[in-house]
Amino acid sequence: MLRKQPVRVAAGTAEAASAHITTLIARIRLLNGQLKEAHRQLDALTERLIPQAEAGPGQRKQHDVEILASLPGVGRIVLATLLTEAFDALQRRDYAALRKKDHAQHPAGRVGKPRDVAAMVALLLDRDRSGFVTGANFVIDGGMTRKMIYVE
User: Fold this and answer.
1) In this structure, is residue 39 part of a structural domain?
2) Could you list the residue range(s) of the whole structural domain that residue 83 is in?
3) Over the stretch 105-123, which tens digit does the pLDDT of each residue have?
4) Neighbour tally for 46: CB within 10 Å
5) d(C-alpha 69, C-alpha 43), whole Å
6) Which candidate, 117, 110, 138, 37, places its Cα nearest to that of 70?
7) Is 5 part of a structural domain of the chain?
8) Under 8 Å CB-to-CB from 15, ≥6 apart: which residues?
9) Residue 42: inside a domain, yes or no?
10) Which of 44, 49, 124, 130 sits most deeply, having the most CB atoms within 10 A of its CB?
């Protein structure tokens, strides 16, 4: 129960606020649709890069692109960036085909490799080395998040 009288506002204020909220909802729905489409396209590109060869009877060998695609959040962002900037090199699995400026723009001096993420995963899976870690966000991007400047 409200004990105070409602605050009086200028005529039309509530209607204007309602119209603004309606516009925002429409924009959010549009963005959600665009994000879903981007994820669909990312998944389709990823599928094209994953070889269908089997590692052995009944076993599948995981590939770099497949590992990145399975990582939530940053993994998918890194994958989308790689697919945008180096699709041909990734398709050929040719790390050396990346441009010198691709490597040079990273504060770490090189473009990341899946083994960089694997090293963190290995650390976190080793109870002797990470048993005291109870929760953290690890950014494995060679310093690019901090830099936030990308070459064309």
Assistant:
1) no
2) 63-147
3) 888 888 887 778 788 888 8
4) 20
5) 8
6) 117
7) no
8) none
9) no
10) 49
Predicted TM-score (pTM) above 0.85: no
CB atoms within 10 A of CB 49: 19
Which structure tokens are listed for 24? 């925002």
Instruction: Identify residue 51 by its one-letter amino acid code.
Output: P
* Alpha helices (H) along the chain: 13-49, 64-70, 74-92, 100-104, 114-125, 127-130, 144-147
Residue 17 is assigned to a structural domain of this protein = no
Q: Which amino acid is at 72?
A: P
**Going by C-beta distance under 8 Å and a sequence separation of 6 or more, which residues neighbour residue 106?**
112, 142, 143, 144, 147
Q: How far is Cα 134 from Cα 40, in angstroms, rounded to an integer?
A: 33
Q: What is the DSSP letter of 37?
A: H
Number of domains forming the structure of the chain:
1
